Amino acid sequence: MPRPRLIMDRPSDEGYPDVEGYVPIGMERKKMHLPKVDEPELIRHYIGLSRDNFGTDNGPYPLGSCTMKHNPKYADRLASLPEVTRMHPWMDDGYTQGCLEIMHRMEMALRCISGMDAISLQPSAGAHGEYTSMLMVRAYHSSRNEERDEVIVPDSAHGTNPASAAMAGFKVVEVPSAEDGCVDLGALEAALCPRTAALMLTNPNTLGIFERRVKELAEMVHSCGALLYYDGANLNAIMGRSNPAAMGFDMVHFNLHKTFATPHGGGGPGSGPVGVRSFLEPFLPIPRIAYDGETFTLDWAHPQSIGKVSSNLGNFAVILRAYAYILRQGGDGLKGCSERAVLNANYLKHRIEKYYDVPFSDPRKHEFVASAARLKKEKGIRALDVAKRMIDYNIHPPTIYFPSLVEEALMIEPTEDESLESLERIADALITIAHEDPAVVLAAPENTPVGRVDEAKAAKDAILSYRRLHAIRGV
Ligand SMILES: Cc1ncc(COP(=O)(O)O)c(C=O)c1O
Predict the structure, then answer these.
(1) Ligand 1 probe mutation, 65, 130, 160, 400, most atoms within 8 A of CB
(2) What is the DSSP string of 433-458?
């Protein structure tokens, strides 16, 4: 049999492969504009970039709402095995039995942790899991010929919640928080109506406060015929102690890249599986992974499914890391993680609350939101300035200005991975900053390669490829 023709078989006069006939007309590039550098320079460039960056391997990373845990190296090693990296998602089932088994087992683990009856691993991020769930909410109500076009979201919700509901075609109805930081049940009662399709809730909420009346709230939502959706981004606070099914939720998304210690940041790589109670199972994305006791196969025969939400079965390298983490921790280990995460957050809160106000009631779960409002009033130091100064102490800044119901918010989540010494370092830095000369804090960071950047410009005009840099600078 003749060998298939390869592009490299026919180098052109210029030394470039002759791509004629292989690349669609109009898409060929004659010149690549690749930087001409030798190996030492290339290595220095990337090592330099890694030094300019800050990750969980550099220092404490108490970025509220993001659960920046340590990413265990055993999980990275597993995910880099050739048995994993050489797999291709389009391989025939006969070659992928091991991967399918891992995913099937991961589904079982997530069922056990959440109390849900069925799982899909397809979504690639938390927000993607939310959107997938909202599509299932729509499919469920239309299967019952009910016209429900409103989704209720508390004012403390993560911004992706209303965005996902709106993208799935729902009108978003906001309900305020009461004085204790929990959902105002009176306002919820007034918002619920025959058009309500679902309520999206995270528990503990983004203030780190557990919604104590969650069962009453579930009852209210269900008696109006709507579904209760659990944003599982804060699962690290309760895992092993409670679960969304026990609280009355019908569906949930998980952030594997938070709760189960896999890398994340800058938009990926993530994984946001969804879980549902049995009456919603027909609507889960397809294909589902089926197992007949001997063989794993892909099952497409679910006519009520919302369809595929990912080009393949999910972000396998992330799923594998999370699966390894769950096995390594075991049930008691996971419970220990949530206990320590809550203890660490409350200890840190206790250490700094003389210097920063921490509005709303106690106790907190895995995170808390402090306010720099007093510092701003007395010394002109804003939450942004505190955050920038923390970088000088080699601590990643907390999340700032979220949730918006706290003025000059500093949202702090140390996670269970920080030692007592490390917690003391974070607290000492925050306390020192509160006493520092405002001129120093306002000029921070001073110990970094880049000082204050024009953040709006950086967000709007990101230069992310060499081609774009070349176009702008002509280098
Ligand atoms: C409470 C909450 N919900 C949802 C999300 C969205 O998750 P992702 O960033 O994976 O899309 C986040 C992310 O920080 C979150 O904190």
Answers:
(1) 160
(2) HHHS-HHHHHH---SSSS-S--HHHH
